[in-house]
Design brief:
The complex is a heterotrimer of chains A (about 100), B (about 475) and C (about 375).
Chain A lengths: L11 E6 L2 E6 L4 H7 L6 E3 L2 E3 L12 E4 L2 E5 L10 E7 L6
Chain B lengths: L1 E8 L3 H12 L4 E4 L27 H14 L5 E4 L2 E5 L5 E6 L2 E12 L3 E3 L12 E3 H11 L7 E5 L2 H12 L4 E6 L8 H6 L5 H14 L4 E3 L1 E7 L6 E6 L12 E4 L2 E5 L2 E3 L3 H4 L4 E4 L4 E4 L12 E3 L8 H19 L5 H29 L14 E3 L4 E2 H9 L24 H10 L19 E2 H6 L7
Helix pairs in contact in B: 1-2, 1-8, 3-4, 4-6, 8-9
Chain C lengths: L1 E10 L3 H12 L4 E4 L15 E2 L9 H18 L10 E5 L2 H16 L4 E4 L1 H7 L11 E5 L3 E2 L2 H15 L2 E3 L4 E7 L2 E7 L2 E10 L5 H6 L8 E12 L7 E4 L2 E5 L4 E10 L2 E2 L5 H14 L7 E12 L6 E4 L6 E5 L9 H14 L26 E2 L1
Parallel strand pairs in C: 1-2, 1-11, 2-8, 4-13, 11-19, 16-20
Antiparallel strand pairs in C: 3-7, 4-6, 5-6, 9-10, 10-11, 12-15, 12-17, 13-14, 14-15, 18-19
The chains are: A mainly beta (about 100), B alpha/beta (about 475), C alpha/beta (about 375).
Chain lengths: ~100, ~475, ~375
């Protein structure tokens, strides 16, 4: 949950997450904005849900498809008005 | 190719200090940093779009960081800063390949100072890859820089000063804490007291962190750890467990705690990416967190003209990083002929003395908070080791059982084949090898080749006017 | 100096040497397999992974067609997964000259009963929708019994298989030279020992020529550096092994795309990835596979390929020197052939002849003569 007065944040804006409009604030990362909105899955990798872990851009658990580009780190990407974000789904047929 | 006498990679305390020292001695210096603004992780400023309302008095650390950062940002014709820039390769000797937005270019250097910082160290357990389980540093960063508490209840578990600092900040921010679990015993931290007096601000900071925890004593448990995280798509609960004096989980003491977010971490390990790409020698040492570059008293690596300073050379915190940065910068300036031998001698000695003084603290931290071997029992065969590819400890142990006892032989099991390029799994797998009986001196890191970071093919499509070969 | 005696010494534990050793041991010969490094860690473990019959030198086709039958049973034989799949190989044609050449080639290959088809550009895009529909193509050739396997898994599986068959494998023991006496090769020398045998097989790939020099034999092969770039894992998007003028692409079972860029002729055997490889990836792949521009390259690696002057391998006994066989010069497409080459060499050594004619792979077609050392690729 966000703490502190809303006026402390940047300007309010709207991002689109899996088709849903979500409110966010300028200066926030995509990962933070999603967490604040209760959206805790950033990618589904062969059935495993993954989300931001290190938050400094080294673990690559927060990869999402942003504006059509796959494999973008949500924790390193800042929100922008109209940014289109999709949960990245990776289904590989892994032979056992 | 842009040519500089010195290139510094990383604008945290070590990098900023190195760059300032170099420019002070008239060395034409470039600094490369991935973030929009300097500060590294520890001095990272809040987003420019956020406003700062009246806050409490700055701590000594914050004042130090602000002073260093402001000095660094002053106009300086010997300093060229490449922000939002990442080193992705080094294809020719004495040069680096840099990515800035979607442009790639090369920088040539006479001297290179690598200040790539550190990453946190973890000991996996079943369920640790569930959404909602994060690194302690990651939670701290969300709190400080995004003003976000990531969940209704937060459980922190691990060991070391970061655990306490993050817990204190969360409590003060009004977070609902499910617990703060320290694997070590409080009293084991006593030897640190004497070192705290040697570093300005450290004692005050430690007291400031201790107070919120003392006020919420019930939350704090020593000799306790997490052994499992539960949940379907997100963490909902955790099994916690007491530890004996060898840090071995005591099965009979397991207890389930409801929680919406978990923070884990056992200190840090050196970044060791660029230093490896450049061919510097590295040694594996669990006390140092994993692989670290071998440097001499002047932070010089075994590769000519390359230095490593700050947490990248071995974890020591911001104050030590700044001193090491200055040492590296000073020695580099001396090697470039900017200072006479006598002058160098008189300038370097006080720095070396400071370094020795401050380094004692980090050496004691290593002794007290390095995870003891028995704690690795939280890793079960089903526990995921490679987060990216889902490779489990059981799969790795099966390969080790077949005599594959080095990191390279484990690659066919998909270890390190995902987008994080083995950043997440390499050190922990090296620990598993050590626990299987492999001599740490024989544990070699995976060979690193460019690209050092994932590179979109579009970058090469756009930038192919500069073709070689 | 220690010495060892055996029936056969095979130098080079890549796919050629390993299968030769395996089949010899299965025929009750005592075999030493020596390598300067680990099993399958050079060309074999670093190749593109194509297991392909079409678009080869015509002489290779019978070997390739038999080889894929062996491939079909390898995972079971080794008891380890190899990710061998027959999901096709597709060669793209970029202009009329290539189309004409392909028409002739397909006709010839079909005469040998290979199931290869000539496709129109629309059919190409049908098979591989990832190819941009406005790509400039004149067609493609598709062979659905072709496919891919995982080179790292194959390299890994060879070790236990060799142990089970009783081959004596000594890794990390480079052979420095061979010794001849009375018109035959009598031993192979390493720093640790002298290996004496009736028969020697030089399957040392890019290092084979250097070893031949120790016998005064000229092996007119040259080395190239092959470079492969690997992307992050993706959901299935590329089927089969697709090759085009300036590279090839396949998708591993775990989702990573493997992009093979143009090989580079080299004088020195060193394995650093070149900047040009990445530029090539950007220059050539998005034009054909538009989706790929937004995909990240996460790693790359290189390997060496050994090229004969006419692009056809050399699988032969030395002329004028007894007890010395050679299998090299596979020009970057030996992965499919390996299991069959091993079998044929074992037959030749044991029976005096092989079940497939190897005369087209002779060494003497290059006027093989004993000569003094000349400049050859050095290892760094």
């Amino acid at each position: 949950m966000r703490i502190g007065p809303v006026s402390d944040r940047g300007a309010s804006l709207e991002i689109i997450v899996d088709g849903d409009p979500i409110q966010a604030y300028s200066g926030e990362t995509v990962a933070a904005a999603l967490m604040a909105a209760g959206r805790w899955t950033h990618q589904i990798h062969n059935g495993r849900p993954l989300a931001a872990f290190c938050n400094i851009g080294v673990c690559y658990s927060c990869l999402m498809t942003i504006n059509g580009v796959s494999g973008v780190r949500a924790c390193q990407t800042h929100v922008a008005d109209g940014l289109i974000i999709e949960t990245r789904r990776l289904a590989k047929d892994r032979l056992k | 190719m842009k040519q500089f006498e010195a290139v510094v990679v990383g604008a945290g305390p070590a990098g900023m200090a190195a760059a300032l020292e170099l420019s002070k001695h008239e060395v034409n210096t470039a600094v490369i940093d991935e973030a929009e603004a300097p500060g590294g992780q520890i001095y990272r400023p809040i987003p420019a779009a956020f406003k700062v309302t009246a806050t409490k008095r700055m701590t000594h650390r914050q004042r130090t960081g602000r002073r260093l950062t402001q000095t660094f940002l002053q106009p300086n014709d010997k300093l060229t800063i490449f922000a939002q820039s990442a080193v992705w390769g080094s294809f020719e000797p004495h040069s680096l390949d840099v990515l800035q937005n979607d442009r790639i270019f090369k920088l040539a250097y006479d001297k290179l100072i690598i200040c790539e910082g550190a990453n946190e160290r973890f000991i996996p357990f079943p369920g640790w890859t569930l959404p909602g389980v994060m690194s302690i540093g990651g939670i701290q960063k969300l709190l400080r820089h995004q003003r976000l508490i990531p969940g209704k209840q937060i459980l922190l578990a691990g060991s070391g000063p970061l655990l306490i600092a993050a817990a204190a900040e969360l409590i003060q921010s009004g977070a609902n804490m499910a617990g703060v679990l320290e694997a070590a015993k409080l009293l084991e931290g006593l030897p640190l007291l004497s070192e705290m007096f040697r570093q300005k601000g450290l004692l005050g900071e430690s007291i400031a962190h201790a107070i919120p925890l003392l006020k919420n004593r019930k939350l704090f448990r020593q000799r306790t750890c997490i052994v499992e995280a539960h949940g379907k798509d997100r963490v909902e609960a955790a099994t916690i467990c007491q530890l004996d004096d060898d840090w071995r989980p005591v099965a009979a003491s397991e207890k389930v705690v409801k929680t919406g977010a978990v923070g884990i971490g056992f200190g840090f390990k050196p970044g060791a990416r660029l230093s490896r790409l450049c061919g510097c020698k590295h040694i594996f040492d669990s006390k140092k967190g994993g692989f670290f570059p071998v440097v001499d008293a002047y932070q010089a690596a075994d590769r000519a003209d390359i230095y490593v300073a700050g947490d990248a050379a071995g974890i020591g915190g911001a104050a030590l990083a700044e001193i090491q940065g200055r040492i590296a910068g000073l020695h580099a300036a001396y090697s470039l002929g900017r200072i006479s031998k006598n002058r160098f001698g008189s300038l370097i000695q006080p720095l070396l003395n400071s370094k020795e003084k401050v380094a004692r603290y980090s050496r004691k931290l290593e002794q007290i908070y390095t995870p003891r071997d028995a704690l690795y029992q939280t890793i079960t065969p089903e526990t995921i080791i490679c987060r990216c590819e889902g490779v489990t400890a059981g799969e790795l142990w099966e390969q080790m059982g077949k005599g594959r006892l080095d990191l390279t032989s484990l690659k066919p099991a998909r270890l390190g084949m995902g987008p994080c390029q083995s950043r997440g799994c390499e050190s922990i797998t090296a620990e598993l090898l050590r626990l299987e009986g492999v001599d740490p001196h024989m544990i070699k890191p995976l060979g690193l080749r460019p690209p050092l970071i994932p590179m979109p093919i579009s970058v090469f499509e756009k930038n192919n006017d500069e073709v070689c070969g | 100096m220690k010495y060892y005696d055996s029936d056969v010494v095979v130098v080079g534990a890549g796919i050629m040497g390993a299968f030769t050793a395996l089949r010899l041991a299965q025929r009750k010969r005592t075999v030493f397999l020596l390598d300067k490094g680990d099993i399958g860690r050079e060309s074999t473990g670093r190749c593109g992974g194509g297991v392909r019959q079409q678009y080869r030198d015509p002489a290779e086709l019978p070997l390739a067609m038999k080889a894929i039958d062996i491939w079909a049973g390898l995972a079971e034989e080794f008891g380890e997964p190899l990710e061998y799949r027959r999901h096709g190989s597709l060669k793209l044609l970029h202009n009329d000259a290539e189309l004409e050449e392909a028409q002739a080639r397909v006709a010839r290959e079909r005469e040998s009963a290979l199931d290869v088809d000539l496709l129109t550009p629309a059919e190409v895009v049908d098979f591989a929708p990832a190819i941009g529909s406005d790509t400039d193509l004149t067609g493609g050739t598709l062979c659905m019994t072709d496919g891919t396997a995982n080179p790292l898994l194959l390299a890994r599986a060879l070790g236990p298989a060799l142990d089970r068959t009783g081959v004596h494998v000594n890794t990390h023991e480079p052979v420095r030279r061979f010794i001849e006496a009375d018109g035959r090769v009598v031993s192979a020398i390493t720093d640790q020992a002298e290996y004496r045998a009736e028969t020697f097989v030089n399957a040392a790939g890019s290092w084979a020529a250097g070893l031949c020099r120790s016998l005064g034999l000229d092996l007119p092969c040259s080395a190239r550096k092959s470079q492969l770039l690997i992307t992050e894992p993706l959901s299935p998007i590329i089927r089969g092994f697709i090759s085009f003028g300036n590279g090839y692409i396949r998708q591993a079972l775990d989702g990573n795309l493997h992009l093979g860029v143009r090989g580079l002729p080299i004088d020195v055997l060193e394995k650093s990835l070149t900047y040009s490889a990445l530029i090539d990836a950007g220059r050539f792949f998005p034009k054909i596979f538009p989706f790929i521009r937004n995909i990240n390259i996460i790693r790359g690696f290189t390997g060496f390929t050994t090229w004969s002057p006419d692009g056809r391998p050399i699988i032969d006994k030395a002329a004028g020197l007894d007890g010395f066989y050679l299998a090299t010069g596979f020009c970057g497409h030996g992965f499919c052939l390996g299991p069959m080459v091993g079998q044929l060499l074992a037959e030749w050594i044991c029976d005096g002849s092989s079940t497939l004619d190897l005369s087209q792979f002779s060494w003497t077609r290059f006027n093989q003569i004993k000569s003094n050392a000349k400049s050859q690729p050095r290892e760094d």
